[in-house]
3-hydroxyacyl-CoA dehydrogenase
Amino acid sequence: MSVTKPLDGKVILVTGAGGGIGRAIAMEAAKAGAAVVVNDIGASLDGQSQSSAAADDAVAAIEKDGGRAVANGDDVSNPDGAQAMVRQAADAFGRLDAVANNAGILRDSFFHKMTYENFDAVVKVHLYGTFNVSRAAADVMREQGSGSLIHMTSTSGLVGNLAQANYSAAKLGIAALSKSMALDLQRWNIRSNCIAPFAWSRMTSSIKVDSPEQEERVNRMKEMSPEKIAPVALYLASDDGADTTGQIFAVRNNEIFLVSQPRPVRSVHRGEGWNFESVRSHAMPALRASYMPLDVSADVFCWDPI
């Protein structure tokens, strides 16, 4: 008697799946019964050099474990590439039930030193890449009447971080994009959610270590494996996650967080309206107690992962 697996009969496309978090999601999805399209252009961390070896290797590992997978080397930042990978999923496996938008690059720099090229490149892969692949997948999913879009955001965008204006802007943009997709696509039973992952991977390996405190932080991050992220992604891709949409989760080792979304925290009202003096003397003193501090992600997630 065969045992039913949570993703039996499902087809999932995972971008940036040649290594790190993407590979972990692809591998675990295959073990859970899904057929997997492993997308990876084999780019270096800054998106320069390319090779198909990483995607091919992940496919070989999945097939060795008895799973089904195909490799794809298209570029998520190119709309035609996104269409091609979605078409490959439909051609190879007959449908597309879930997308994990994981592909990404980094080009860190302090804002006042950041070039247009480095801002544009990071936003193109993360934000435009998420749009391109999701937009292509939405056509297939609408015809099916179901689907799950899973996007990787980051606390660099949700909270803030130094020297990552390009990455932070893209990742916070992904959270807003996901909410819009959840609203627009709900009539076709297509859901859209975000995960902010904490894990040691190619992306986090670029963190500069220039102090004992930073070295300690990096050592703690090395203990957080990419495989810790996969269970939440698999749940969101499964039928059990059918009632979950428009949400933002964070996964940090053995912790799962539901992340708040921007809402008003305090208000002031003046019947006669406002002028500069009343804003200065009344509005801002009343609101100041609720100002958000200039936190970075490490200030908010300041305890050791459990």
In short: The longest strand covers residues 190-198. The mean pLDDT is 93. The beta strands are 11-14, 35-39, 68-72, 98-101, 147-152, 190-198, 248-252, 255-258. The CA atoms of residues 248 and 260 lie 7 Å apart.
